[in-house]
Amino acid sequence: MTHLAELPAWAQLLASFFILVGAFVTLIGAVGLLTLRSFYDRIHVPTLGSTWGAGGILLASIIIFSVLQSRAVLHEVLIAIFLTVTMPVVLMLLGRAALYRDRTEGVETVPPMEAVSGLPEDAPDETDGK
After folding, report:
1. N or C: lower Cβ tally within 10 Å for the chain?
2. Which domain of life is it from (predicted)?
3. DSSP string over 2-68
């Protein structure tokens, strides 16, 4: 048995809105993951889809359980903080690993490390002590 029938109409509408927004943003992330061609293009979409999509669903969960239990339920805030911190970091590390792999294999579409540093090729190295 669920207690969702006891949920007031305003809370049902607000929670439904956040669930739909979260599901829509997650769907956009999934479609973007399928349609973008390059790994480097695809790496941004899951971060946004999972973080913002889960955020909408977690807001709905906070509303539903806070209203049903007549007290603030903040367990979902810990989940949101964990997702917000870990997901971008994980995908950034995946991107760096892919970039390292592509540079090691000599893929032409990836700029070499010297081109990224912004220093001219004949500039003295600061680690020389000169």
Report:
1. N
2. Bacteria
3. --GGGS-HHHHHHHHHHHHHHHHHHHHHHHHHHH--SHHHHTHHHHHHHHHHHHHHHHHHHHHHHHH
Instruction: Report how far residue 45's alpha carbon sits from residue 52's, in angstroms, rounded to the nearest whole number.
Output: 11
CA gyration radius, the chain: 22
Check if the beta carbon of residue 54 is closer than 8 Å to that of residue 83.
yes
Q: Give the helix/strand (H/E) hosting 78.
A: helix 75-105
* Degrees, nearest 5: CA angle 115-111-47: 115
Residues with Cβ within 8 Å of 91's Cβ and at least 6 positions away in sequence, in order, are: 43, 44, 46, 47
pLDDT tops 90 at residue 63: yes
| Beta carbons within 10 angstroms of residue 27's beta carbon | 12
| Largest distance between two CA atoms of the chain | 76
Model pTM above 0.85: no
Q: Which of 18-27, 35-44, 49-58, 89-98 has the highest mean pLDDT?
A: 18-27
